Each structure stands twice: as structure tokens, then as C-alpha cells.
């Protein structure tokens, strides 16, 4: 939480004024019992008369009014600081998230990132708001009441001190005892939720295997565990109200007895005893508020901790020196490259190859053989754990991600479009692209008919994720998006899987006509998509099983043959 | 919600409470004790204060007697309150447990029709969030509604008894705080709507961009995104400031009204003391103290009750949603004289079967299929032609509207669902793994399988190797969604299940769609062995995997338009031929 406090820096004044006005309000509240005492002692007993009483009652209303004004001022400053705090926090968090590397994204997971951004930040915001409003007020009233009591009478003050101490022990003791119990209940509830989900998602399989009774039995076990934990937690938290009630009343008894002794000796008046009684009743309410506040703050701290985990992720984007002039012997070169995801086995082992401008490189292999990993190393989405990936003779670790990625046009496996218009989506490739350039790219990607089929052409609306386009249409549009950039390195990661063979072939023919000679990487499961490539890399479990042209590989690489013939009949080849 | 159905909900809730009625009555009795104690205590304190008049004029003997009485009342009140709290908790949690149990048991017998037609999130939230919300409402209703009403009535009566003038003053000013609260709530409602709309907008944007963060980075869109984000963020922050601020006015405002009430009580009380002659009632400083403490207490139950009413309305709405789920008609139970399907040979026949999910949309009409024992039946056709529906019918996930399906000549409606399903081994395209270990998942169909049998099955399904590469091999725990396993690996596990329990009939719906072609070829060999002598229904996208089938059913729009072996169908040059050639065009 401490680290996040810096987001209050623009709201320093507000964050000081809010609790200050709260204190003001509390002080006015503390004066009330004194006035009542004065009314009784001076007005009723002392014979100052009705005029005095009326005056004092106006003072009471005035105090209430001033309290109201201070409270409203305080709420305003608190709300302003809290919402401003949340705004700056969200802004920074979003920027931080955007700067995470691929492996960090994999590690955190997108759904967790979204929770951090939304519910966690909201929880922190309400925590900040409450702290500013109550953290000063409640202790101030509790201890203020005690100090007032000491002012009236030392004996009464002592009673207050003891009562407050006992109350604190009980209130916080019960809270501390129940927090882990509630946490346990919560995890039991999570388990009940998971069981409900599971039975729905797996309904076909569960019914196919006749698991209904077993499911019910296992659910009832979890449900009963939840019941027991809730019941136990309830048993203890049910003590809170009766115990505090007993303590406060015991305190009042002691207070009145001490007061009676003092009145007898003439040290106190009846009105002052009434004032003390009123102070005592104020304490309880504020202590309970304080206890609830502490629960909220604890939750906010937990959320702040989770948000900080994101901020604490190291910055991975490399600045770098940019591309060297002239370039190396090869446009792209992999030298004994290994890659590993955090904690796992090698996804790629000892991969070496070169690629030149204008070449088409095919990458093929089974599920999990490392195809996607290989192409992700080129734009430095992941870093090689051993060996060296270089572009134009410079190690991609040193080039600088922005410069490197602006050379690349990438078509990811999952064809995603963003909400907006087709034109806006195409401009992701190049912010300054003209309509002519966009149309040309669409034509190359065989996506011109997609645009033509939609009302509005380039202005046609795209729903989130591109849901209003079919899988094949989306793939062609994402290819066009990459081409708008006129990239020097074009990476198609299994991006033609939803295209029929004829369109796939036409697309590949178009890619050969590109006048800016990019190197094209085509990742595919189908040999038909990469047959014509200048060089085909066959991967098997992260290792290179063969490199060569289609015909060469058919002769030299049994794995390639196996893949090919599993898709084509032998006699057909 | 219609009034009558709301009434029904109340009746259902009462029925749900019936087993706990003695506890409910006990709780109400204890509430009475608690309220009485709460109201009595300030009176005694007032009386004690009247014994403390001035120096030399303090009645210690009288005080001692009062203190003893006070101690007894406080102890009784506390005890009653504690027991009441415990009872209320127990009733609530028990009812929650009962409802969840009922709902879950009902999920097991609901027709798939319902489950397929509702989002999982919706059903889960009924069983979890709605039940919780309902329980909260119930608990609050118990603890606060009854005691609140009692407190208000009790306070009023006692105040009237103490000083009817002051009582009337309090009675008329207090509702002001309710009006203020209500006024603020209605005014801020639209601000909250605006805030949550903007929050929704921001969440949608964040979801879209964070979900596809890799694409965002690949195209270097971080900067433009941050600008868009800031735009929404500023608007959200402004709206949130407004709604937070205005809604936080409620407390200070009601506090102010309370302080006015307090001042009024003090004023009228003090004046009654100064001019005792003008009033027909006896009044003392102690009574004034009691009244002041009442006027502090009196407004609290009002605020609580208005909270409880919203909470209760909410709870009733939630209860309605839960009962809607529980009341959803279950699937038609097995015939009472339904037989167990045993010793299956595997002749399967569809006779004049008509079926559709939606009465307005015809799907399968008058369908006839006959598969002989041991045959491999492949089903092909474009998306939406009814392939998966056939499987739903075979497994009796759905029943035909007309016609019948039989196994070995016995109508499947005459046999128990369980025995029918036990005779099928099913692998679906949508792989599903339960949370648990790999082994738990494999033995789902054969819980008594030995480790050797499990390993043998895994080897047959080519899953053994990847399982051994996992942290703890067969004991690796996987989460609900299969954790880190790839789609292909999940499919291999599903295939292993079938390899282990070896039922006499098989259903393979795109069972190898996510497995790379090379592994698939190997599994096909294992499948081929498995299918030996077993009636199998195979749905596949890749036509190469079904060429060996004994009979291929080509479906289109719910009908079988062609039927025969691969060679026959190719030779016929019809739809299948076209489909096949489009896939292998070079």
C-alpha cells in the first residue's frame, strides 16, 4: 500500500483537509454532552431560567449545523482524493500492463490482469475514501470522549480508560479470531462454486459416465463443509454485540457509581454525571465503525498488494540501439537458439537457420513442437534462453523492441479484430495509411470481397473481437492489417487455417508479388501451405528435424514425409 | 414480478423454513427479551440518576438495589441476544445449505435442453450469488426487521409514558431523516447509473486490449490505447467523484436531523423541568436522560428497517430466481419398469425419428438409420447439419419427438438411461476434464482400474509420454479447465478414458480435431483396434480419418442425403465427392 500512496501526491491538500474537517465535526459532537450538562445544571438546577435553556438548545442546533457543513466539506475532499487517486492508479496500471513482455503476460494471465484493473482498484478506492473519512474521526471520538471525561473527573476518566481498553480487546479480539474463519468459509464457498460450474460444463461427460450420484455426494460434502465453517464463524461473531453491550453498560454502572460518590462529596453535579453517561454511549458506535473500517482497510491492503505485484514486474522492453547500417551476412539468423518458458522444459532446442530478404520460410511440425515459439523470437516477444537471434546482423536483444517490431508484420494464430471500423483496424498496421494503401493490402490478403460484402465498406462496423465476421474473413483481415505496414518481416502464424485451399493458394501467390521483398514466415500444420517455400523448417518437439525444400525434405526427412502423407494419399503425391 | 408469484415465493420460503420453525419461534421470543432489555436499561439508568441529586443527597442504598436489577437485566439481555444471533445464523446457513443441495441435485436431473439453453454463469450465479443474497436478506430480516419494529413501538410507548409531549415531538421530527435519506438516494441514483455505465465501458476496453495484449504490442498500439484509456478514465473519475460525494451526504444529513431531534428533546425536557406546574405530568432529570438516550436510539431502527426492506425485496427476487431453477421440470424419469441394458451386441437403429431443439425450426425429420453390431458408422456433413444432434439422441441427452431409437432391438426409452450410457464410450470435441489428478480423470469410467491398466490405456492413447513429462506424472493435479494442458493433450486424456473402460459402443465426435496429424495417425491405429467388434459412430471433419468406415452417412439439413462406403460415394459423384475433393484440392 505504501508504494501506492504516491498516487495521492496531486491531492495532498485534499487528503489533509478531509480528515481535518472530520476532526472538526467530531469535536463539535463532543461538545454536545457538555451543553446538555449545562442545561441541566445551570438552566434547570441553577435557575438560569428558560431563556438560558432556549439559548443553549440553539447552540445545540448550531453545533449540528456547523458539524454538517464540516462533514460535507470533508466528504467532498475525501471523495475527490479517492477518485483522483484511483484515476491516476488506473492510468499507470494500464500503461504498466501494456509494457509487460509476452512471458510476463503468460505468467500473470489476462483474466487476473483485468481483475487487478477493475475490482481491485475499486476496492482500494473505497478503502482510501473510508480511511480519509473515518480513520481520524472514530479514534478521535473514542479518545476525545475519554479526555472530556478526565476533564470532568479523574475517576470517571479512569473508568473510561478501562472500558475502552476492554472494548478494544474484545472487538479486535473477535475480529482477529473471525477473519481466518471467514477466509475459510470463503474458500469453502469457492469450492462449492467450482463444483457447480464443473457439473454444468462437464454435464455430457458426467452423465455419459453415470456420475450424477457421485457428483451430488461430493457436492454435499463441500456444501456441508461450507455450512460448518460458516456456523462456527457465526458462533464467535455473534458474541460481538452482546459482549460489547455488556461491557459498555458495566462501564456506565461503574461511571455512575463513581459519579454518585463525587456528587455526594460535591465534586460533581448531576448534569455532569449525565454528560459522562452520554459520552459513554458515543464510544460504542464509533468503536464498531472503527472495527468495520479496519476490515475494509485490510481488504484494500490485500488488493493493493496484488496490484503492486503487477507494478513490481521488471521492465522488459529493451530500449536498444536500433538497426545497424549495412547489416550482417544474413537478414535473419538463428544461431543454436534454445528457448524456455518459465519453469518448463525447453520449447526450442538448438535451432539454427538463416533467412534472406524475399524468401519464404515454412515452419511445420506437430502440436507443441515449437513452431509459434520460433517465430515469436524474431520480434523479441520472448528472448532466447541460449544462442542468438539476429536481424541484419544485430542481436534482437540489442536492437530495441520498438524499432524491431515496427519492421514486422505479424498475423497471430487467433485472428482478433478490435471494435471500431474496418479502416480503424487496418490503421493498426500503419497510422498514416491512405485508403488506397489499405485497399491494396486488402486485395493482397484476398479480403477485398469481405469489405465489399459489408455495408459501409471501409467504414463497416467491427464488433469486439470481430465477432460479426467469420473465422476465414477475420483471418484475411488480420493478414491485410499486417500488410498495410509493408513489413520487412511478415509472420503468418497458422493464419490461413480457416481458408479454403483455393484462397490459401491465391494468398500465397499474392505474397510472392510484394515489391518490397519481405522475408515471409509461414507457420502451418498443412504441407500444402508451405510446399512452395524456399526453405522449410521441420520441428519435432522443439528440435529441428530437417531443413530444406519440399522435394528435398520428402527424400531426406521421414517426419516431413509422414506429415505430408498423412494429409495426402501416397499415390496422390 | 406479479403479486401472486411474489406471494408464492413467500410461501415457498416459509415452506423452506418449516423444519426450523421451533427455532424461528424461539428466536422471535428471544428478540422480544432483547428488545425489552434494551429499552428497560435506559429507564433504570434514569432512575439511578434521579437518586443522585446533589451533595449529601445521594441515595446509595436505593442505587445498590437498582444496580443489582440492572446487572440482571443486562446479563439476561446479552444472553438472549447471543443465543438469538446463533440461532439466526444457524437457521440462515441451514436454509442456504438445503437450497443449494436441492438445486444441485436438481441440476443432475434437468434435461440438457435447459442446461444448453442457459449460460453456465447464470446458473452458477443462481446457486451461489442469489442464494447468498437471499440468505443475507433472510438473516437481516430476522435480526433487524422484527427487533426494529419492536424497538420503535416499545420506544414510542415508553416515551409517551415518560413525557407525551416530548414523545410527540420526536415522533414528528424523526421521519425527516428518512425523507432526507430517500431524497438523496433518488437524486444519486442516476449518478450511480452513469458511473457504472462508464465503469462498464472502461472494463470493456480494458478487457479487449488486455485480452489481446500480444496483438497490441505486435502493432505498437500502446500509446494510442493509453490515450483512449485516459479519456474514459477521466470521465469515470469525474462521475465517480459526483456519485461518491453525493451519496456520502446521507450520513451527515441524517446526523443533523438527529441533532435537531436531540436539541428539541433537551429543550422541551428542560422546560418541563423548569415549569413543572404547567404540565400534568411528573418529570425528572433522570427521565430526561432516559429520553435523550431513547431519541438517540429511536432513529436507528428506522434507518435499519428501510435498509431491510430493500434487502428483503432483493432477497425475494433472488429467491424467485432460485425457485425458478428448482421448479424447472426435470427430465422424464426412466420408466418404472425400465430394464437394465446388458450384454449389448451393438445393433443400433433409428426408426422414423423426428427431432428439433426449437419447435419453429425443423431439424431432423423421419430419419432412419440402421447400424449393425460391430459396424463403423461415419457421419459427415457441413456445420449445423445435425451430426452432433445424432449423438445427443444416441446418448439420450435429448429424446426424439417422434419415432424411436433402439439398441439390439430394444427401444432406448424402455431401458434405464444409465445402463444405456454405460454401454457407450464417448469422446467429444469439447474436451472436459474435472479438477483432480490426471489419474482421477482417466478412471472416471472405471474407478476400480489398477495402475497397470491405467498406464496401458494411456499408452494405447499415446498419452503416457506427455503424462510422464508432467511434474507428478499421473498424480499431477489439473484445474477445472485442464490447466496447462494443450487442447490436443486434453483430447488424448479423454481418449484414454475410453481406452480404459472399453464399452461395447463408441461415439467419437471430432475426437482428434486438436491433435496434430502425425499423432492422430498413431491414435487412429489404436482406435482401429478399439473399434474392432464395436459399433462406432464417428463424426470427423477431416475426411481422411473416416475412409475406412463401413458406412458413411452424409447429412445435410437434418437428412441423410447419401449413404454408402467411401468408394461407393466417391463413385456416385454426389455431395460427398464434392466435399472430399474440396478438402484435398491441390
Entry summary:
The complex is a heterodimer of chains A (573) and B (586). Chain A has 573 residues and is an alpha/beta fold. Chain A is 64% helix and 11% strand.
How would you sum up this structure, described in words?
- The complex is a heterodimer of chains A (573) and B (586).
- With 573 residues, chain A is of the alpha/beta class.
- Chain A has two domains: 2-311, ABC transporter transmembrane region fold; 357-383 and 395-571, 3-Layer(aba) Sandwich (Rossmann fold), CATH 3.40.50.
- Chain A has 21 helices and twelve strands.
- Chain A has helices spanning 12-45, 50-98, 102-108, 110-134, 137-152, 154-201, 203-208, 212-237, 240-265, 270-311, 371-377, 396-399, 401-406, 422-426, 435-444, 448-453, 471-484, 501-512, 527-530, 550-556, 558-567; strands spanning 332-340, 346-355, 360-365, 386-391, 394-395, 408-411, 420-421, 461-462, 489-493, 519-524, 535-540, 543-548.
- In chain A, strands 6-9-10-3-11-12 form a six-stranded mixed sheet, sandwiched between helices. In chain A, strands 2-1-4-5 form a four-stranded antiparallel sheet.
- The two termini of chain A are 66 Å apart.
- Chain B has two domains: 95-326, ABC transporter type 1, transmembrane domain (ABC transporter transmembrane region fold, Up-down Bundle), CATH 1.20.1560; 348-582, P-loop containing nucleotide triphosphate hydrolases (Rossmann fold).
- The model of chain B has no long low-confidence stretch (mean pLDDT 84).
- Chain B has 586 residues and is of the alpha/beta class.
- A six-stranded mixed sheet of chain B has the order 8-11-12-5-13-14, with helices on both faces. Chain B has a four-stranded antiparallel sheet with strand order 4-3-6-7, with no helix packed on it.
- In chain B, α5 runs antiparallel to α11 (285-327).
- The two termini of chain B are 62 Å apart.
- Chains A and B meet through α1, α2, α4, α6 and α7 of A and α2, β1, α3, α5 and α7 of B.
